[in-house]
Amino acid sequence: MQIETKIKDLIDKSGPISLSRYMEICLWDEENGYYNSKEVLGEKGDFITSPEISQTFGELVGLWALNFHQQFINKKRICITELGPGRGTLLNDATRAISKVINEQFDLDITVLEKSQTLINLQKANLNNINVKWISDIKKLSLEPQIIIANEFFDALPINQYVRGNEGWHEKKVTTKNGKLCFTLDNKIWVPSDSIFSNFKVGDTIEYSEQTVRIFSNICNHLIQYDGVLLVIDYGNVSGIGDTLQAVNNHDFKDILEKPGQSDLSSHVNFKLLKEIASKKNLYVSKVKEQQIFLLELGIMERLKSLTKNVSSAIAQKLASEIKRLIDPDKMGSLFKVIAVTKNNRHLEGLS
Ligand SMILES: C[S@@+](CC[C@H](N)C(=O)[O-])C[C@H]1O[C@@H](n2cnc3c(N)ncnc32)[C@H](O)[C@@H]1O
Predict the structure, then answer these.
(1) Contacts of residue 312, Cβ cutoff 8 Å, sequence gap at least 6
(2) Could you give all domains of the chain from N- to C-terminal order, each with its CATH number?
(3) pLDDT per residue over 179-218, tens digit each?
(4) Looking at ligand 1, which residue's alpha carbon is closest to its atom 17?
(5) In 3-state terms, what secondary structure has residue 341?
(6) For ligand 1, what atom is nearest to the CA of residue 211?
(7) Taking the alpha carbons of 114, 117, 118, 120 in that order, is the dihedral positive or negative?
């Protein structure tokens, strides 16, 4: 059955549905859900991510992970987990870079959290030279220090939206009108349990992702018990205000309710909320840095120099323009932010 028909039937039967339910169906419907049915990532897909743009991204993140391990963990096993690795490109580049600098004294132990069977199959093919363990639940992480990498992961998790009225918060839901999908505000007042919902004015919208809070909190608990670090790279803001939900199809923005299941749905990560959750658990949260600063401090220009040493000027130009896309403030350089969460106040490369 078409996703749109499924959603309309559900609304006819039980009334307006929350945005998170709408997103869950669009993205994960078993039959026609976005992540289960098509090639979503890369030039041929609907959107492109940093590791797909330039190999230097994964290489630098890999070396950042190794540096953290050598400074603060320093065990024989280097445990790296990636959340939602898409096509597996970051892991390929990261492990290649790490393997060049470590010797046999170290074992690389790689775990992947992935929900899409289509992407798991692709990851298995693309990562066939690395020993990888796939998990479907963050609670299955092995009980040792983990270096956890989340690039454009949290933005993909379903959110709810709440709009501030005179008397309190109203949930924005999806309903139908004259046979078409549309948004509506729930009459009921929704009472938040979280302090991030204070100090707003009438008309403000706030987004809240229960899945983000659950997964992030579980990771925090793992860090408290076993040490390690979580590196989050994503587009997002620190104010936590605003309607940021977006639909992208074939590299273009679309209406959220148009052709459900055929576009990628994502939203800006609320870094303020992540900071609050981790701080309440007495974890150390780094500054929130723009992607451009992080990559420049990690040496992306030096890497470009070494990559372009013996290549034609056409290839050198191509490599330079890929890197420009990652660090240009008008492209991904500013919108994308980076934070890390770890046990103690540590000097973290690129984030201090
Ligand atoms: C936007 S893609 C990012 C891919 C990759 N990190 C990159 O930068 O190219 C989101 C990834 O997260 C995965 N994902 C989304 N929700 C998930 C969930 N609840 N559990 C596990 N993986 C999930 C998707 O299948 C996909 O691999």
Answers:
(1) none
(2) 3-342 (3.40.50.12710)
(3) 999 999 999 998 877 676 777 899 999 999 999 999 999 9
(4) 115
(5) strand
(6) 19
(7) positive
CA of 112 to the centre of ligand 1 (A): 10
pLDDT at 159: 97
Q: Give the separation between CA 162 and CA 168, rounded to whole angstroms.
A: 10
Residues of the chain with pLDDT under 70: 38, 194, 196
Pocket residues for ligand 1 (CB within 6 Å)?
35, 41, 49, 51-52, 84-86, 90, 113-116, 119, 151-153, 156-157, 211
The residue whose CB lies within 8 Å of the most ligand 1 atoms, and thus the one to mutate among 93, 138, 153, is: 153
Protein residue with least CA distance to atom 13, ligand 1? 84
Model pTM? 0.96
CA distance 319 to 242: 35
Say how far residue 212 (Cα) sits from the centre of its chain.
10
Say what the pLDDT of residue 106 is.
86
* Ligand 1 atom nearest residue 47's Cα: 1
